[in-house]
Amino acid sequence: MDDSEEYIVNLILDNLYLIDEECYSASGIKKEVFIKSGGRADIVLTLKNIVYIIEVKRGVLTTNVADQLIRYINTFNVDISKEIIGILVGKKPPDCNELIAYLKASGHCIKPLYIDHHIPLEYNICNYIGCRRINRTNALKCRWCGEPLMKIW
C-alpha cells in the first residue's frame, strides 16, 4: 500500500466526493498552489461561492499542521465574496478533541478528515452502476448508496 502524500493527493483528486459532494462542481482544481505566506497548499478547489484549501499529511494531524493551514487561509488571495474552507487530511490523533477545539478556536471553517476513516487508502469499489465509489475494505455496505459490497454467508 502506498501512503505517500502524492498518492493521497491523487486519490482525493480522483474521488472529490471524499471532501464534499459539491466538490464535483469545482471550476478550478489545482495541485501544489504557492501561498504568499510561504509553502504550497496540496490542493485548492474553486467552486462558485467556496474555495477549499486542502493540506495533506501522511502522519498524525497536530496543531503544527493546523497552523500551516491556518497561515495559508489567512494569506490566500481570493475573492472576498467566497467562503474559504480548510481541510486537513492525515492520521487521527490520539486526542482528536484537542485538535477539533484548536481548529474551532482559529475562527476559520476547518474540517479534519482522517486517513483510513474518511479517506481509505485500501478500499473496495462499489459495484452498483450508479455509485462506483470507494469504501473501506472492511465495509459490508457502501457508505454512499447502501448497496452490499460483499456477500455474507
Q: What is the H/E string?
A: HEEEHEHEEE
The backbone outline, from C-alpha atoms, is globular
| Low-pLDDT residue intervals, each spanning 5 or more residues | none
Count of all domains = 2
Number of helices: 3
CATH architecture of the largest domain: 3-Layer(aba) Sandwich
Oligomeric organization of the protein chains = single chain
Largest sheet: 5 strands, mixed
Q: Could you explain how this protein is built, in words?
A:
The chain has 153 residues and is of the alpha/beta class. It folds into 2 domains: 5-120, 3-Layer(aba) Sandwich (Trna Endonuclease, Chain: A, domain 1), CATH 3.40.1350; 122-152. 22% of the residues lie in helices and 30% in strands. The protein is built from 3 helices and 7 strands; from the N terminus they run H-E-E-E-H-E-H-E-E-E. It has helices at 5-14, 63-75, 96-105; strands at 28-34, 40-46, 50-60, 83-91, 109-114, 123-125, 134-136. The strands form 2 sheets. The protein has a 5-stranded mixed beta sheet with strand order 1-2-3-4-5, with helices on both faces. The protein has a two-stranded antiparallel sheet with strand order 6-7. The radius of gyration is 16 Å and the shape is globular. The two termini are 28 Å apart. The model has no long low-confidence stretch (mean pLDDT 89).
